[in-house]
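User: ok so my PI wants both of these folded by tonight, can you help

Assistant: No problem, let's get them done. Here's the first:
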Amino acid sequence: MTAFRRFLPALALSAWCLAVGYTAVQSTVSLAEEVSEELVLVVMHARQFDPPVIILHTGRKTHLVLRNEDAELHAFVPRELFVGVGLNVGGNGAPEFDDSGFKKVIIPSGGRADIRFVPERAGEYQFVCDMPGHEMRGTIRVE
């Protein structure tokens, strides 16, 4: 009976995969890809970034989630981190780009921005909120 209980979650996953048209191999690959992505959450509240220091790793897929819990707009303005780096920006924020690439994203109250990228250069990079009167600062360390 114990062996059957261990097998039951895998059996349920296989049944679900068949029901939605996936094969077990496809779902295993998708799960492995999700696990290999580094997820980092930064919350904006009380005119602060939390956490104020983020550690990332070179060459590792990263999913940076920025969530605004304040009643006002905030911006995420990274300094030099994304120069020459390919990235994907999602969520309900308003991203801005210039000649060098990604410049910033403005995030509404209750909103979020999702940035997916692979850090390529080790170093320390500052980020700020550049809304008038906001003194929000943080650091991203890429090791």
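One down. Here's the second:
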Amino acid sequence: MNDFKQQANTRSMGKGMIVVAMIIGLGLLTYIFQGAIETQYNPNQNVRTTQTTEHHTEITLERNRSGHYVGTGSINGHKAVFLLDTGATYVAVPERIASRLGLEKGRRIPISTANGKSIGYQTHIKELNIGEIRLYNIKAIITPNLEEILLGMSVLKQLEFTQRGNELTIRQYL
């Protein structure tokens, strides 16, 4: 009888270990594939500075799988992921991200987006960085119906950019 109980306990423990191993395996696969998906969306998680002189700073962004230029930088010292959008007048920050970045809602204003008309809030970015490019006192809009931060013309008009193949070179003249 004792032998039977011991075998049952051993089987039960073996099944438990298999379940734990499967859970750990699924967790690792999720972690690995999530990183791969993030890299496909944002191949510029570490924006590279290709040249810095006393006259200008230059960064290069690689186009993502969807054909967009996405890069990691910061707003007011907080990490931020930007989608470059020459059709956006200002930097547009989703409402759900704005408080994490230390942005305060200013005056309500009507805005027109690809999704239609909406209401946004004026705000001000003290410092915005992407790679080694640093910009100060940027006009921005906090928007309620947006998923990602759009790097609009309030920043891009201060820079020079050139696209060749799958790369976008951005220069800031000092």
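Residues 2-41 form the longest helix (40 residues). The two ends are 85 Å apart (CA to CA). Good luck tonight!
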